[in-house]
Amino acid sequence: MTAEPRQAATVLLLRDGAPGLEVYLLRRTKGMPFAGGMTAYPGGGVDPRDGDVEVGWAGPSPAQWAAAFGCDERTARELVCAAVRETFEEAGVLLAGDPDGGAVVPDVSGDDWEAQRQALLTRDLSLTELLAGRGLALRSDLLRPFAHWITPPVEPRRYDTKFFVAALPVGQEARDVSGEADEASWLTPSAALAEATAGARPMLPPTTHTLGQLQPFPDVAAALAGSPPEPLHPISPTFEETPDGHWAVLPDGTRIRMVVPLPS
User: pLDDT at residue 261 above 80?
Assistant: First the structure.
């Protein structure tokens, strides 16, 4: 029986570093039930409370996001909220600010913020409650739609994942706070792909492909401006095994080599 894909959101968090555009990457612990040992971006499945219509919101509306992702408004709201929540949970970065679309919150690293991040993780606190308690709004204008991948039907654990790009807010620092990762790095897309090709940084095909999409952009501004036109077309690869390796084959014929994490 084919598993129904779960809605999920992933965020390519970007900054301008000395070598050029850099993206924040997490290496998932090898004991994780999904993508253990793989390098990935912050993200995860939609939580039921991500659809809360009471959440403070500034920026493009759920209807606009629904058009970008080709889904209904409730799903769009859930996805944007999940993107913001997961980025805070896994990287300690909060894409929120003044409800009028003004200043973005500059620092979320204090003990009080950490207590609320932990409460989000345990689901004792919702994103809506966190933002309301601090007089903040989710800033959907800090995000851009970037890609849409669906796990193939042959997989027992499936996700319908929307990929976003976002700039690291001024004054905030991404931190390795996720209990799901054993390494966090800022890398240029080219450096990350070189490590993947060498077998030192295994990745799932969506990570490899989206890093390749980022490669042409010289800086964060260009990456945010270069988001693809709406709506995004979902990608669901097939798999192929040949004498020279195991490959994911995309609908356009692109082949991505599959690299399995080495045992510890």
Answer: no
Q: Are 131 and 55 in contact (CB under 8 A)?
A: yes
| Residue 161: closest CA among 85, 211, 236, 49 | 236
Kindly report whether the global pTM for this prediction surpasses the value 0.70: yes
What residues contact residue 41 under an 8 Å CB cut-off, 6+ apart? 10, 11, 12, 13, 23, 24, 25, 26, 163, 207
pLDDT band at 138 (very low <50, low <70, confident <90, very high): very high
The dihedral of CA 229, 232, 233, 234: what is its sign? positive
Whole-number pLDDT of residue 68: 92
β-strand pairing of 238-242 with 143-150 = unpaired
Fold of 6-225: Nucleoside Triphosphate Pyrophosphohydrolase (3.90.79)
**Is pLDDT above 90 for 36?**
no
Question: How far is it, in rounded angstroms, from Cα 36 to Cα 260?
Answer: 10
Q: How far apart are CA 214 and CA 202, in angstroms?
A: 18
The beta strands (E) that lie in the chain are given as 6-17, 20-28, 39-40, 43-45, 57-58, 96-97, 137-139, 143-150, 159-167, 181-187, 238-242, 245-249, 255-257
Three-state DSSP class for residue 75: helix
> For the chain, what are the domain ranges?
6-225
Phi, psi of 225 (to 5 degrees): -75, -20
> Smallest Cα–Cα separation from 35: which of 215, 201, 167, 256?
201
Q: Which residue is it, tokens 């490899």? A: 208
